[in-house]
Amino acid sequence: EKGTYPHFMLKEIDEQPFVIRKIIQEYQNENDEIKLDPDVRQAMMDCDRVYIIACGTSYHAGLIGKQFIEKLAKVPVEVHVASEFSYNMPLLSEKPLFVYISQSGETADSRAVLVETKAKGHPALTITNVPGSTLSREADYTLHLHAGPEIAVASTKAYTAQMAVLAILAVDTAKAKGIELEFNPMKELGIAANAMEALCDQKEELEQIAADYLSTTRNCFFIGRSQDYYVGLEGALKLKEISYIQAEGFAGGELKHGTIALIEEGTPVVALATQANVNYSIRGNVKEVAARGAKPCVISMKGLDQENDAFVIPQVHELLTPLVSVVPMQLISYYAALHRDCDVDKPRNLAKSVTVE
Ligand code: M6R
């Protein structure tokens, strides 16, 4: 039920802080320790490499998950688009663990890989919003997203939930391996949830940004470096899928290798600046595109913000910025679609779960 909301997408965007708090609750015991299926913990301990398989938005969550698992738990991770995996099956490590990320748990492209890797005897963990789904039933283990039903075709709360669960999984593995961490995932996720809530209260400002930058444009580029690049990919996917604006995400450093040729007078370029170690470089990219006529829309994080940034998100732990920086992207896409009279919840040519290969 949409309740008083005009669209499921807007309702689901607003639900995100509550979903993150629910995840904290579900994955914590009474001693404030991580509560996770011991078999999943063992599978993470036993593997020598994680292969994340997913599509669309879930693939984008996987890119962030790789950062969590490699940086915190020190386990190597590869992330693959499911539909490409079988043709280009990499040389597998000796003890691979396959992790399927899927909101619906019904995505045929991911299932095809699951069937193939199960047949080879490799263990599988599914991270899904639907525990009884095909991918969940056919895998050895499941981690539940607890996001509640996601109805809008454009995935929002499942994406942030996937990243939250991946962060918890990474920290749990690190702890099981005896790695000392300063990062307290539940505390930091709580801070991120509060920040997300604050952003959900800034809809008018974000609607204005959508009006200023996106109401009449033909295309839009998203640039970022490091984690911001991955969030840019997700921002671009949101925008193209519901507003039909041609949108592409690029690594800031790649601009000069070709993409910058696309910049024309007035081209909107959404630049993410939430990572201290790349702030200088991404700011350089913003100057480069501005010098060629682009209309930069910088979304930065407090502490790294500069005069003329279009929007500033609250400060959160640098690992968790994607959970927060994606919220303005989702809302900008939503309002852009609305201004352009698009069917926000049911964009053309798309289905909520893609059950054909
Ligand atoms: O249910 P899944 O997470 O497996 O779905 C994967 C993609 O089809 C899905 O994320 C799609 O890209 C969304 N419509 C994006 O908003």
TrEMBL record:
Broad class of the protein's primary localization: cytoplasm
Keyword Lipid biosynthesis found: no
Domain SIS: 40-179, 209-347
GO biological process, one term: fructose 6-phosphate metabolic process
Quaternary state and interactors: Homodimer.
Keyword Cytoplasm among record annotations: yes
Shown residues within the full chain: 245 to 601 of 601
The protein's name: Glutamine--fructose-6-phosphate aminotransferase [isomerizing]
Record GO cellular component, one term: cytosol
GO molecular function: carbohydrate derivative binding; glutamine-fructose-6-phosphate transaminase (isomerizing) activity
Physiological role: Catalyzes the first step in hexosamine metabolism, converting fructose-6P into glucosamine-6P using glutamine as a nitrogen source.
UniProt KW keywords: Aminotransferase, Cytoplasm, Glutamine amidotransferase, Repeat, Transferase
Active site residues per record: K352
Enzyme nomenclature, EC number: 2.6.1.16
